[in-house]
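(Deposited chain)
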Amino acid sequence: MIYAGVRNEFVKLLYLKKYKALLVLLSLFCIGTGLAGHLAKGFIGLSLSNTPLAVLPVITGFLLPLIISLAAADLFTAEQENGSVKAIITRPVSRINIYTSKILTIVLYVMLALLLCLIISSAWSVLVNGTSLMSVIEAVISYTVSIIPMLPYVLFAVMISQLCRNSSSTVMLSVFGYIAITGVGILMSGISPIVFTSYTGWYKLFIGAAMPITHILSATSLLAAYTLIFYAAGAWAFEKKEY
């Protein structure tokens, strides 16, 4: 049932033109960043020879959180606004399966966005900058592990969507919440290690000379805890909500 739900929700998401446009914009961003680094190299000493790793911090730190907020608003709050959620919850499928299917759909879209950016930016680096195979392997590892710190934010945005009555408020509260939490982590460095938004760049732990296994395990446990807490809170609200 969850597989069928994810398939239907993913088709529904891609049916919205803005999600196709977002993939195109992400592709143009990768190409534009690589082109800017290539053109500016001889003028100001800017070097973006490894384009995948140059664009990844912007993608995971800014662009994907915004996209996730939009997807949470469209798959949850928008359906509450237009009343289509009533037709979904009356089917012989449990609410928890519906809820999980929508979440996995957002995760699948995030994975698609990361894969697209990886392919385009890596192709640019190899064809234009002559990037080595080792750099490409590092990029593949970095993009693969970058999905992990996105999971808590997906569940955070979905949880926020259960508290809102319209799509715009879901997007604003999710984005402002992300900014606020990130800001607290920056201003109060003492609590930064326990703030989930502090790990959007944790891919750097996997591409150094030696991976800090202890740090990776502790960060993974923290991100898993946030993911489960946000999932439980959002699922409870989705189960109790009356449409």
Notes: DSSP finds nine helices and no strands in the chain. The CA atoms of residues 205 and 211 lie 6 Å apart.
